Amino acid sequence: MESYKSEEVRTALKDVLNAARFEGKIAKVVRYKDPMAYVVPPEWFERACAALKLDPENPEAEPVPATE
To answer: 20 to 30 A Cα–Cα from 60, which one of 3, 42, 51, 53?
Structure first.
């Protein structure tokens, strides 16, 4: 996993996004050594939402109840 300072991401955002989308790479964005965000490939995010039973279009909403 690559780690970038927040000011580095501002200048390299296109490269970070392309690496996530086309190379499947995850990037951690840090500020003063504290993690601020992660940039992940879309497929990774969608799998995580499915595992957590969250709507990828609205992950802040309540989890979707399991159907039997």
So the answer is: 3
Q: What is the pLDDT of residues 58-68, one digit of tens each?
A: 777 777 666 65
CA-CA-CA-CA dihedral for 13, 19, 24, 29, to nearest 10: -40
Pick from 16, 12, 22, 14: which is nearest to 2 by CA?
A: 16
Q: What is the DSSP letter of 67?
A: P
Burial of 4 per CB tally in 10 Å (0-12, 13-18, 19+): buried
Contact 29, 8 (CB under 8 A): no
DSSP letters of 2-17? EEEEHHHHHHHHHHHH
